[in-house]
C-alpha cells in the first residue's frame, strides 16, 4: 500500500523541479547565449551573466580557452561562481580572475577580482582533479590586499 505522505512529498519535489526547469527555460529566453542547464552549469551561467552585465564585460565565444569574458581593453577574465564550497577550482590561464559568491536567494557578492597570477601563486595544484585550487578565505584575503581594481 502506498504511503500518502510519500506521494505528497514526491509531488512537491516534482513541482519544484518543474519550477526549476521552467525558470531555466525563461532564463534561456532572456539570455540565450548562456546554456542555463544543470545545477552546476546553472550556477556558473548565472555567475557569468551577472559578471558580464555588472562589470561591462564581453562574453567570450563558446570554447574559448581559459577565459569566459574580456574587459573593454581586451584583458581576458576567468569567471568562477561559488555557492557553498570552501574552495574554487580552475584550469587554464587568463589576465584576470573574478570570483563571486551567490547566496540561497540569488544575491551575489564579489569575493575577488584581480590579477590571475596573484591567485595562481597562492593556489595549490590537485593532481587528482588536474586543476588549481584556492580557498574562498584566501581569496578574500587577497582581495583585501588588492588595491587596484582591474576595470
Write the layout of secondary structure elements.
Layout: H1 4-30, H2 39-55, E1 58-59, E2 69-70, E3 76-82, E4 87-90, E5 96-102, E6 108-115, H3 116-121, E7 124-126, E8 131-135, H4 136-145
Parallel strand pairs: 3-5
Antiparallel strand pairs: 1-2, 2-3, 4-8, 5-6, 7-8
Describe this structure in words.
- This protein has 151 residues and is α+β, with helices and mostly antiparallel strands.
- The protein has a domain at 58-145.
- The chain contains 4 helices and 8 strands, in the order ααββββββαββα.
- The chain is globular.
- The mean pLDDT is 89.
Tell me the strand order in the biggest sheet.
1-2-3-5-6
Mean pLDDT: 89
Helix content: 25-40%
Can you summarize the main beta sheet? 5 strands, mixed
So how many helices?
Answer: 4
Radius of gyration: 18 Å
Annotation, overall tally of beta strands: 8
What proportion of the residues form beta strands (DSSP E)?
25-35%
Shape summary: globular
Name the poorly predicted regions: none
| Quaternary | single chain
How does the helix and strand content classify structurally? alpha+beta
Q: Which series of helices and strands comes N to C?
A: HHEEEEEEHEEH
Give the N-terminus to C-terminus distance in angstroms.
Answer: 63 Å
